[in-house]
Design brief:
The complex is a heterotrimer of chains A (361), B (345) and C (330).
Chain A (H helix, E strand, L loop, with lengths): L2 H9 L12 H8 L5 E4 L5 E5 L9 E7 L4 E10 L2 E9 L11 E5 L3 E7 L21 E7 H7 L5 E4 L4 E2 L4 E4 L2 H17 L7 E7 L2 H4 L1 H10 L3 E9 L18 E4 L5 H13 L5 E4 L7 H6 L7 E8 L7 E4 H17 L4 H8 L7
Parallel strand pairs in A: 3-12, 3-13, 13-16, 14-15
Antiparallel strand pairs in A: 1-2, 2-12, 4-5, 4-9, 5-8, 6-7, 6-9, 7-8, 10-11, 11-17, 14-16
Helix pairs in contact in A: 1-4, 4-9, 7-9
Chain B lengths: L2 H8 L8 H11 L5 E4 L5 E5 L8 E7 L4 E7 L5 E6 L11 E4 L4 E5 L9 H4 L10 E2 L5 H7 L5 E4 L4 E3 L2 E4 L2 H15 L6 E7 L7 H10 L3 E10 L19 E2 L10 H13 L5 E2 L9 H5 L7 E9 L6 E4 H16 L10
Parallel strand pairs in B: 3-12, 3-13, 13-16, 14-15
Antiparallel strand pairs in B: 1-2, 2-12, 4-5, 4-9, 6-7, 6-9, 7-8, 10-11, 11-17, 14-16, 16-17
Chain C lengths: L1 H8 L9 H11 L5 E4 L5 E5 L7 E7 L4 E7 L5 E6 L11 E4 L4 E6 L14 E4 L15 E4 L4 E3 L2 E4 L2 H16 L6 E7 L8 H9 L3 E8 L18 E6 L7 H13 L4 E5 L6 H7 L5 E8 L8 E4 H16 L5
Parallel strand pairs in C: 3-12, 3-13, 13-16, 14-15
Antiparallel strand pairs in C: 1-2, 2-12, 4-5, 4-9, 6-7, 6-9, 7-8, 10-11, 11-17, 14-16
The chains are: A alpha+beta (361), B alpha+beta (345), C alpha+beta (330).
Chain lengths: 361, 345, 330
């Protein structure tokens, strides 16, 4: 599978949180050849199962990569000199300073292309001139008269950002929604890696819904699927302009395996061992409290699920020029695949027992 | 000297890295419970079977984690950057001693000497991201060889008693753990008691939620240590709770309204047994009761706490009479708990 | 209907202390329910059986209201207090509150030095006429609700607790009018919404519905200098698309619009920038619920003059009945 094509297909589909019905069919088409069952659940997560080889009841590993992206939503239609403009609010953690002058798609009765406009500073009220543009001033301009806008757009319609995936130097690419379609791509690569390799455990691949707003799909899919262990895959901060030194990672430096309260030490170690067996370059990430990923939700479903977290380094998170190195996406897919093939019947009892082993001096 | 409090508070168990405390508690309870196991998050769960007189299943929870630090990076000079694991007042950290990693390597959180500070620096709070932990390594390589990114650091304080007062680190919540251990060592209760020594309370009440889901009890009691602000103050305001005035009973905090029926049961029990108590000032804060109460179809839950001065510092203080009365009140509360108390029409 | 509204909006029931509300609502729904339950947190759940062909649908309207709780009694017998839910300091001067034991208290604040500034909550106090902690009829930990009589002026209805007793009224009226339904419908009168949508969480965990619909008030953009928002009083039921706590199930939003269009019920689409409802809890319960909300537009939310329009209330009732009387395909 061509990684650029895969990422292009995934990132160029517009699907803000709550509007995953746009992207779910795209992911379904990618995953269907590799899995035994696939369906969409009550909150919009896509859940696919690839059966393992062990006798039933088989242990299950859940892989969660969220498929939603940040976006906007129409709050008002306003008229000016016969033209229709849209006021919007954010869906998920949009940095409103960089919304101005972006291309968008308005998902109305029919899809309308538009741009995000604003009056120039000198025409704004004095107290707002030196401040970033806010939603009270920004408008979406679809270039149409009011009647056409009203015929096609309602309050509550989703708006997604529109930016093609572009190649940078080497294997780096840039575009929108690499957070977190890059991880959906990695899971796809993992499922492909598992073709023709044997694995004991069932793999439950979940493209989760509404991560950007409330980690919804992680909580609910972990509850419904009752896995024995889970791994969240998400982007993490790449080293680059404006990023701090610690807890950021080189683009192209390999997957980041995380430790911290949301991660079970057994999963951390298991992923490390899988990387070692592939002689893969990896980094260790940390979170001291909340990881801000699906791992947070997965871990506390029902009576608790041993959870791991793998990150793909990404620059300029939550902008329309998110950038990464495709090697890291491919490595993340292989790392997950290798981890899965190494899972055996005793994995859970071993990592649980390790919680009570005396530390070796 | 209260050996239980000494051993528990001197053990290290920063949130999500509770192994040492978990092992210690397991050894302290193993002869007094019928079953125990560790769940997927590391909660230590134990069952003390009842006499069979009552059909209830009751969960008693005490979190075993403490606030601490996590190493996030090594500087070129061989000192470590860190973040807080749990809530910290930055002023707590400067000039303190910590123990780092499984080998408990001693480090210090140093600062620029006061002589070298400009006037405005002397009057500003040093933020955590400007502090470093120094283990005495001569350079980055030497430091990295000793301590890994992702390892934890905890305060170091030797337990001591000053009359009725005890000083130490991590009374929040080893005092609750000690009380729960004492409850397990008592004779059987009319019903099955499930004890959860839960993990990750300090990073968002994480462990108790899955413990409660797994146990699925009819009611729950949470044993805690709550901040006491009974220091000199000219204003006529509540001290939250005060040392020496007895167990503190929660009514409402920032994230929970305690079950009113259980609160009434606890206060009635205290009055009937001549145990002093104080109502903790309603308002902020939160305990594991919040997540236990909201688990499954809802679990009636309430909190009894040991008042603790100087919370989330290495130099906490509790009153040993308060502690003894928490044990007494919790035990009496359990022994007199009947299905009628939590019955609803 | 105004009689029922008056009865519910004037009653005492701060979050966590809803026993009286439950006693008021139960007789109103008993005749229309096949079964009534009260769960561990105190949610009142009235069940209407379906014919077996439909889904499990949970309707949530919260019984609790915002209020205050005593934190400290001063030497002079004044009560310092904290908020239960979203109590706004600028709505407090001169208001009256009532405790469970009937004691009435007056709220005022410490001396105001700068009239342009509002004191934080901890600078307010309650005067119950006591002169010391010894003769104070209430104590630390006691909860109080606000006092304000119901008022109907034309089609506008005003009370201290339209949020969310008017949602309870919508649920009760819909139960009365719903002749038959394919769905197993759980009308949940929930507790502790104002302190973090807690009652609906445990009710939904327990009931495990396929679909969850909250009935709650929403803000409007039709008052002077309002935050821009395309919701007005009198323009119909509000179908929630998004608020700051959840994004409604897209299919459920479509279905609500279709039902309203088909029955010619006036409606508006709601994107709310502050606050959330019981739908937030229902959505994330268990394996997830297709969740949405029918909102009653309301001015002056969390003041003691919360105001709704009777026509909007009627539209909400009709819309809920239309949804429940017909199949739900998402």
């Amino acid at each position: 599978m061509d990684t650029f094509k895969l990422l292009k297909t995934l990132t160029e589909t517009g699907a803000p949180s709550g509007f995953e019905e746009q992207i779910a069919p795209v992911v379904q088409e990618l995953w269907e050849p590799f899995v035994d069952t696939i369906s969409v659940d009550r909150v919009g997560s896509l859940i696919a199962v690839k059966n393992g080889r062990a006798p039933e009841p088989r242990p299950r590993l859940l892989l969660a990569a969220h498929m939603d992206e940040i976006g906007l939503m129409v709050t008002q239609i306003v008229e000016h000199e016969g033209n229709g403009f849209l006021r919007v609010t954010n869906v998920g953690g949009v940095d409103r300073r960089q919304v101005y002058a972006q291309l968008v798609t308005v998902h109305g009765r029919k899809e309308l292309h538009g741009v995000v406009g604003n009056l120039p500073p000198h025409l704004l009220p004095e107290d707002r001139r030196d401040k970033p543009y806010g939603y009270e001033d920004l408008v979406i301009d679809v270039g149409l008269p009011l009647a056409d806008v009203e015929a096609n757009v309602s309050v509550g319609d989703f708006v997604s950002f529109r930016q093609p995936l572009r190649k940078l130097q080497g294997k780096r690419v840039s575009g929108k929604a690499l957070d977190n379609r890059a991880s959906v791509a990695a899971v796809t690569i993992c499922l492909e890696y598992l073709q023709g390799r044997s694995h004991d455990w069932d793999v439950v691949a979940v493209a989760t819904a509404q991560e950007e707003t409330r980690l919804l799909g992680a909580f609910t899919s972990a509850f419904s699927q009752q896995p024995d262990a889970a791994i969240a895959i998400d982007v993490t901060f790449g080293k680059g302009p404006g990023a701090s030194d610690e807890n950021t990672f080189d683009l192209g430096g390999g997957p980041v395996i995380d430790r911290g309260p949301n991660v079970h030490p057994g999963l951390y170690q298991g992923l490390q061992e899988a990387a070692d067996s592939l002689e893969m370059s990896i980094n260790t990430g940390t979170h001291s409290r909340y990881s801000g990923t699906d791992a947070f939700g997965l871990q506390i479903a029902r009576d608790g699920i041993p959870t791991g977290l793998v990150g793909i380094p990404l620059r300029y998170m939550h902008t329309m020029v998110e950038s990464l190195d495709m090697k890291d996406v491919e490595r993340t897919g292989r790392l997950l695949g290798e981890f899965i093939t190494r899972l055996d019947a005793d994995f859970i009892s071993n990592i649980t027992a390790a919680l009570m082993e005396e530390e070796k001096a | 000297m209260n050996e239980l409090l000494k051993n528990l508070t001197e053990a290290v168990g920063v949130a999500s890295n509770e192994k040492e405390v978990r092992l210690l508690i397991r050894d302290l309870i193993v002869d007094h419970v019928d079953e125990w196991h560790v769940d997927a998050m590391g909660n230590l769960l134990a069952l003390k079977k009842g006499t069979g007189a009552s059909p209830l299943r009751v969960l008693v929870d005490a979190h075993m984690d403490e606030v601490g630090l996590m190493i996030t990076d090594v500087d070129s000079n061989g000192t470590f950057k860190f973040e807080g694991v749990g809530g910290f007042n930055d002023r707590t950290l400067l000039g303190k001693v910590v123990q780092v990693g499984p080998e408990k390597i001693i480090g210090v959180i140093g600062a620029r000497p006061v002589h070298l500070l400009k006037a405005e620096q002397r009057n500003s709070v040093v933020k955590m991201d400007a502090m470093r932990i120094d283990i005495g390594a001569k350079n980055k390589d030497a430091a990295s060889g000793k301590v890994k990114v992702g390892e934890y650091a905890a305060f170091v304080t030797e337990y001591e008693e000053l009359g009725e007062t005890a000083v130490g680190k991590a009374f929040d919540n080893r005092a609750g753990c000690a009380a729960l251990i004492e409850l397990l060592r008592a004779r059987p209760y009319p019903f099955d008691v499930y004890a959860s020594f839960s993990v990750q309370e300090e990073v968002g009440l994480r462990g108790a939620q899955v413990a409660a889901y797994g146990v699925n009890p009819d009611a729950a009691l949470v044993l805690e240590c709550t901040p006491a602000y009974d220091l000199p103050n000219d204003d006529d305001v509540s001290p939250n709770v005060a040392l020496g005035k007895g167990p503190s009973i929660y009514v409402m905090d920032g994230v929970t309204i305690q079950d009113p029926r259980l609160v009434a049961h606890i206060t009635r029990t205290a009055a009937a047994n001549g145990i002093p108590f104080q109502i903790r000032q309603p308002g902020g804060g939160g305990t594991n009761t919040a997540v236990i109460q909201r688990t499954r179809g809802g679990i009636p839950a309430a909190t009894i706490a040991v008042p603790g001065r100087h919370a989330h510092t290495p130099t906490m203080m509790i009153n040993l009479d308060d502690y003894a009365n928490v044990v007494k009140l919790a035990e009496a509360t359990l022994r007199s708990l009947t299905p009628e108390v939590i019955k609803r029409n | 209907m105004n009689e029922l509204i008056k009865k519910l909006v004037e009653a005492y029931g701060p979050s966590g202390f809803e026993d009286g509300m439950r006693d008021l609502i139960r007789p109103e729904v008993e005749a229309y329910a096949d079964e009534i339950r009260v769960d561990a947190l105190g949610n009142l759940i009235a069940i209407k059986n379906g014919d077996g062909s439909g889904l499990k649908v949970m309707i949530a309207a919260h019984m609790d209201e915002i209020g205050v709780m005593v934190t400290h009694v001063t030497k002079e017998g004044f009560l310092r207090f904290t908020n239960i839910g979203g109590v706004l300091p600028h709505n407090l001067m001169g208001s009256r509150v009532q405790f469970a034991n009937g004691t009435i208290g007056l709220i005022y604040s410490d001396r105001i030095e700068d009239r342009g500034k509002i004191h934080p909550l901890n600078k307010f106090y309650i005067d119950v006429g006591a002169s010391s902690p010894d003769d104070c009829p209430v104590s630390v930990g006691d909860a109080a609700g606000f006092v304000r009589p119901f008022m109907a002026q034309g089609s506008r209805l005003t009370a201290k607790t339209m949020d969310d007793r008017i949602g309870c009224v919508v649920a009760i009226e819909a139960m009365k009018r719903l002749k038959s339904t394919p769905h197993q419908v759980y009308f949940a009168f929930t507790v502790q919404e104002e302190v973090g949508v807690r009652g609906a969480m445990t009710a939904a965990n327990h009931l495990d519905p396929d679909v969850g619909i909250a009935l709650d008030v929403t803000l409007t953009g039709d008052v002077p200098e309002a935050r821009p928002m395309a919701i007005s009083l009198g323009k119909g039921a509000a179908i929630k698309v998004k608020d700051s706590g959840m994004i409604a199930h897209a299919g459920l939003v479509r279905l609500m619009k279709q039902r309203a269009d088909a029955a010619s019920i006036p409606y508006q689409l709601e994107v709310l920038d502050g606050g959330s409802t019981d739908a937030r809890s229902m959505q994330i319960a268990n394996a997830g619920t297709a969740a949405g909300c029918i909102s009653i537009p309301c001015r002056y939310v969390h003041s003691q003059s919360e105001t709704v329009d009777a026509g909007d209330v009627e539209s909400c009732i009709q819309l809920l009945v239309e949804i429940l009387a017909n199949p739900i395909e998402l």
